[in-house]
Write a structure and sequence with these properties.
Blueprint: H1 7-10, E1 13-16, H2 32-37, H3 39-45, E2 49-52, H4 80-92, E3 96-101, H5 111-118, E4 130-131, E5 152-155, E6 160-163, H6 178-194, E7 198-201, H7 243-255, E8 261-264, H8 270-273, E9 286-287, H9 291-294, H10 299-312, E10 320-322, H11 331-335, H12 337-349, E11 353-357, H13 377-381, H14 424-428, H15 434-447, H16 449-453, E12 455-461, E13 465-472, E14 475-482, E15 488-490, E16 496-501, E17 510-511, E18 515-517, E19 522-527
Parallel strand pairs: 1-2, 1-11, 2-3, 3-7, 7-8, 8-9, 10-11
Antiparallel strand pairs: 4-6, 5-6, 12-13, 13-14, 14-19, 15-18, 16-17, 16-19
The structure holds alpha-D-glucopyranose and magnesium ion.
């Protein structure tokens, strides 16, 4: 029943990248008080939960994904007091707050790692992953860092290598060690006890590595131009069977607190992804489903992927969909502004929880970053392949004033040069804007049992369109999406009325026979009960 769904099933999750949302103190970097000052906006938009990318003390080698203290707040972002105020204000508005939990690795400045590297016999040595060099002095195996180069760095004073899937400043925790588990579960309890509603969990599928540290096999599909680490498969350092024990442990800790939830960042093929729901639902509530980011934007491909995903979900598994995040090119840049509107209709009408990336509601494109302003270590270490993530992390344009209302200082990343026209203030009251489309979609979904809780029934697909039904009892909502620029005639199972379209003038239109779906149009039609 629609009213029996949990908040994270009904709700829309909105990802805030704190550095780029709103600066409150003029240092050019967004912060917690900035987020607090913009809660009116998020409430107006209608989102239910805010996920904050990491806000913990960090040397910022990977912009917060290198944590040096899991239970504090990075001074650039504010204080624990600011955080508590933000949380309280979010809750007062009936919204939820998710933090980013980074269990796979710490910063090399974390006191645990400082202790671990101080000597081979230090009490925390085994909290990280240490191996002897091979006989010739080379790294223990062929595992590579995603951010370029070997996944192993030698610590000369102690003569061993430590492992890191990312930067050498992000040493990886040893989750086989029960003390590490207990410490990290303690971190979860710290924040859950403070009232946070759950976590997005960073690279969850990578937390366990092969106990024997075997070499990864070569990737037969590798070709130059792909991210270099993909020359090997992740057979021995990703998605090991043992990871599910860890996931189940995190879930048990979460369940000690009422009504909390976990979202896992997991980049895996769908048949592997769905295993993270856990046996009998003892895994994460939502293993992030990134298919819409990775797939070719082609109607038949997308329709087939939705059906396949629906078919692979375990009985207890609640679906979810994502169009963008802080690691991937923005949706407008991937598929263009007209299709990004169609994609928005898809995101909010599919079955399952939508996650919206800040700025996508304005149709923000990636912002080109001049070489001297590159911040992302991925771009610095593996340049020229278009892997850098700064373009999708630029400040949110709030209005047409200096620095788009984001900061009174010098923004840490450039603001898109279209900000005078593309900003929250300019789009707010414009019926044709991307922002208005998002707000309408969110409102529509919130109040519609078929969109919230209805089944997903594929209807038909053509070369560049597809249509489906959401059905709840005798309520039927029909969604038709045109991925092409030419109009299409689509059969509709019954008469009805257009609830919403990417072409706003069509809202309210009566539907009697087949409908014409315009080029680049996505429409939502309420059908006569049946
Ligand atoms: C995740 C984060 C990414 C980060 C990496 C290492 O993929 O989303 O931003 O660089 O983990 O923590
Ligand atoms: Mg600031």
């Amino acid at each position: 029943m629609a009213d029996e769904l949990a908040w994270w099933q009904r709700g829309v999750i909105y990802q805030v990248y704190p550095r780029s949302f709103q600066d409150s103190d003029g240092d050019g970097v967004g912060d917690l008080n900035g987020v607090s000052s913009r809660l009116d906006y998020l409430q107006w938009l209608g989102v239910d939960a805010v996920w904050l990318s990491p806000i913990f003390p960090s040397p910022m080698k990977d912009f917060g994904y290198d944590v040096s203290d899991y239970t504090g707040v990075e001074p650039v972002f504010g204080t624990l007091y600011d955080f508590d105020r933000l949380l309280e204000d979010v809750h007062r508005r009936g919204m939820k707050l998710l933090l980013d939990f980074v269990p796979n690795h710490t910063s090399d400045r974390h006191p645990w790692f400082l202790d671990a590297r101080s000597s081979r016999t230090s009490p925390k040595r085994d909290w990280y992953i240490w191996r002897d060099p091979r006989a010739d002095g080379s790294p223990p195996n062929n595992w590579l860092s995603i951010f370029g180069g070997p996944g192993w760095t030698l610590d000369p004073p102690t003569g061993q290598f430590y492992y890191h899937s990312f930067l050498k400043e992000q040493p990886e925790l040893n989750w086989r060690n029960p003390a590490v588990r207990e410490a990290m579960f303690g971190v979860m309890r710290f924040w859950l006890g403070r009232g946070v509603d759950g976590f997005r969990i960073d690279v969850l599928h990578r937390v366990m590595k092969d106990a024997e540290f075997r070499d990864n096999p070569a990737n037969p599909a590798f070709s130059p131009g792909m991210p270099p680490h993909q020359q090997y498969l992740g057979t021995y350092n990703s998605d090991l069977p043992e990871v599910h024990e860890v996931v189940a442990g995190m879930r048990r800790v979460t369940d000690e607190f009422p009504d909390r939830m976990l979202v896992g960042e997991i980049y895996l093929p769908v048949e592997r992804l769905v295993v993270y729901y856990g046996e009998a639902g003892g895994g994460v509530h939502l293993p992030f489903n990134f298919q819409l980011i990775g797939l070719a934007w082609d109607a038949r491909t997308v329709a087939a992927a939705v059906e396949r995903y629906e078919g692979l979900l375990p009985a207890h598994g609640w679906p979810n969909w994502v169009l963008g995040n802080h690691d991937k090119p923005r949706v407008v840049t991937r598929i263009g502004p007209a299709q990004a509107r169609v994609a928005a209709v898809l995101l909010f009408t599919l079955r399952g929880t939508p996650t919206l990336y800040y700025g996508d509601e304005l149709g923000m494109p990636d912002v080109p970053i001049p070489p001297d302003r590159v911040q992302d270590p991925y771009e610095k270490n593996v340049p020229g392949l278009g892997l850098g993530r700064d373009p999708c992390r630029t400040p949110l344009p709030w209005d047409a004033t200096a620095n788009a209302g984001f900061t009174t200082g010098h923004p840490w990343l450039p603001i898109g040069d279209d900000f005078a026209a593309r900003n929250v203030a300019a789009q707010r009251d414009n019926p044709g804007s991307m922002l208005t489309l998002h707000r309408r979609l969110i409102t529509l979904r919130r109040d519609d049992p078929a969109l919230l809780a209805g089944s997903y029934d594929p209807h038909a697909a053509g070369d560049d369109w597809f249509a489906f039904l959401r059905r709840y009892g005798d309520r039927r909502v029909f969604v038709a999406l045109n991925f092409g620029s030419r109009p299409r005639r689509v059969e509709v199972p019954a008469g009805g009325r257009v609830l919403l379209s990417t072409h706003p003038a069509r809202a309210g239109e009566a539907v009697r026979g087949p409908i014409e779906v315009g080029g680049d149009e996505g429409m939502v039609v309420e059908l006569a009960p049946g």
